[in-house]
Amino acid sequence: MAVRLGYKNVYRDPGGYPEWLEKGMPIASAPAGQAAAAEEPGPSGPLDGWAMVWTLLGIFAGGMALNLTPCVYPLIPITVSYFGGRATRSGKDLGRLVAQGLCYMLGLALANSALGIVAALTGGLMGAMLQSPVVLTAVASILVVFASSLFGLWELRLPGRLTHAASKSYTGCFGSLFMGLTLGVVAAPCIGPFVLGLLTWVAGMGSPWLGFLVFFTLSLGLGLPLFLLAVFSGQIERLPRSGDWMVWVRKLMGWVLVGMAAYFVRPVLPGSLGIHLIAAVFLAAGLHVGWLDKSRASFRAFRSVKTGVGIACIVLASFLIASQVMRGPGVDWKPYSSEVLQEAQRLRKPAIIDFYATWCTPCRQMEEVTFHDASVVERANMEFVMVKVDVTKGGNPLHAKLLREYGVKGVPTIVFLGTDGKERKELRLVGYIPPGQFVDRMAAVTKPGN
After folding, report:
1. What are all long-range contacts of 89-96, with beta carbons under 8 Å and residues at least 24 apart?
2. pLDDT-based confidence at 29, cuts 50/70/90?
3. Cα–Cα distance measured from residue 434 to residue 343, given in angstroms and rounded to the nearest whole number
4. With 60 as the cut, is the pLDDT of residue 287 above it?
5. Are 363 and 411 in contact (CB under 8 A)?
6. Domains plus CATH for the chain?
7. Do the Cβ atoms of 372 and 328 come closer than 8 Å?
8. Checking DSSP bridges between strand 385-390 and strand 334-335, what pairing results, if any?
9. CA–CA distance from 266 to each of 110, 122, 258, 326, 361 (Å)?
10. What angle in degrees, to the nearest 10, is found between the helix axes of 208-231 and 49-66?
11. Any alpha helices (H) in 24-132, and if so which ranges?
């Protein structure tokens, strides 16, 4: 389950490491008790600082884009006629229309935000499950299956009675609230797969507040265009006519799900293969939706939009590949052994022990960013003995002993040993830390007199 230390994201196993070791299961990440890592907070998660703003803007844009899918777009004239029939030129009736429109958006927001809160509250269970390679692979497979439905390989349909009950019309603010609450049912064949992927992501974060915020933002994006069209119903004739372009939007959403599948399966893949997989998804999506797909539209801007999306995807794929190709060498790690630590003491060198697992996202972030930073690598290879304890599989008696000896409850945990072989507990790290802050800790452990 995701917890927060300052601004850091780490994972915590509520039961601690003994149960993990007995079952041979992966340990989650460190608990809040390791307070040393909180002294110098640094951003790492997708919802920190400006990253939060851009992530929520992206979710808001995704909610707006869902209005262009084939299942949602036909609801636009129904919504406009529902609200437009109540609009007159008098300010009083216009105010009532706005109030009902806000109730409509509130209903939509309440329905989706409840899903986000439930997913976040179960984050302890789902978060632990999402550390298993089997579960990660299964989640990715489900997302790909749903993506195939958006590509048109099969259709997801709801029972007719359920759709009919959800689409009934009621008057007043209650009617508007009910329409918002049930819009997700009517539009489920298109937005359901997208929402499922978002639910899985929110559950991994484990924060009910963030779950509410994410889905409330999605609901605003989904409901705002319909609300504006209801208020300005006289502009309905300016909407683009339905056609193949809606199918193109649906395929684009399918690629979003494929990208999320690649994100979830990435911890299972060795080395940088996960980054290459995500880059391949961007490249394939760009070629498909940008040029290979033959969807057409009656408005001229559609071709420019297709080309722009295709170019953007290819640029992102190129950036990911270039970041891997141009990345310098990483830290030269040695597997743990008592002989390695004895050699460090003999050479009067401090040592750094990294408790790591391949399925741990902050661990991989440390490896790919911090431990490939030129300043960190240079100092580590010249002044330190770098030791890696890989607890990915679990069940190793030596690792169990080390976890007990150093009091490690989760990964990533980074232990700094002085030249005398004793731990500098005030420097212990739990969770991700940027290269600059890591160099500061390296300097502290090598400072004369320590």
Report:
1. 94/231
2. very low
3. 29
4. yes
5. yes
6. 1-44+328-450 (3.40.30.10), 46-268 (no CATH)
7. yes
8. parallel
9. 32, 22, 12, 21, 9
10. 40
11. 49-66, 75-84, 91-121, 123-129
* C-alpha span between 183 and 201 (Å, rounded): 22
Residue 416 token pair = 């700094």
Half-sphere exposure of 137 toward its Cβ, with a 13 Å CA cutoff? 5
Task: Give the SS3 label for residue 63.
Answer: helix
Question: Tokens 């819009």 appear where?
Answer: 183
Element (H, E) at 356: strand 351-356
What is the Cα–Cα distance from 212 to 436, expressed in whole angstroms?
Answer: 33
DSSP 291: I
Q: Spell out the residues 6+ positions from residue 119 whose beta carbon is closer than 8 angstroms to its own.
A: 126, 199, 200, 202, 203, 211
State the Cα–Cα distance between residues 262 and 277, nearest whole angstrom: 7
Percent of the chain as helix, strand, coil, to the nearest 5:
65, 5, 30
Neighbours of 69 (CB within 10 A): 21
CA nearest neighbour of 44 among 364, 386, 262, 278: 364
Q: Tell me if residue 78 falls in helix, strand or coil.
A: helix
Q: How many residues does the chain have?
A: 450
Position of tokens 């974060």?
Answer: 205
Residue whose tokens read 């359901």: 192
The full 3-state SS of 414-442, as one line of letters, equals EEEECCCCCECHHHCEECCCCHHHHHHHH
Measured in whole angstroms, how far is the alpha carbon of residue 29 from the centre of its chain? 17
Distance CA 224, CA 251 (A): 23
* 139-163 exposure pattern, b = at least 16 Cβ within 10 A, e = fewer: bbebbbebbebbbeeeeeebeeeee
Distance CA 268, CA 270 (A): 7
Unique residue bearing structure tokens 């806000």? 102
**Residue 414 tokens, joined:** 């980074």
Q: In this predicted model, what pLDDT tens digit does every residue of 130-151 receive, in sequence order?
A: 567 787 788 788 889 888 888 8
Token digits for 66?
A: 């869902």
Q: Which two tokens stand for residue 299?
A: 């408005």
Q: How far is 174 from 190, CA to CA, in rounded Å?
A: 26
Nearest-5° angle of CA 433, CA 438, CA 443?
160
Q: Are 119 and 192 in contact (CB under 8 A)?
A: no
**pTM of the model as a whole:** 0.59
Q: Which residue reads 């079952």 in tokens?
A: 23
Task: Assign 283 a pLDDT band (cuts: 50, 70, 90).
Answer: very high
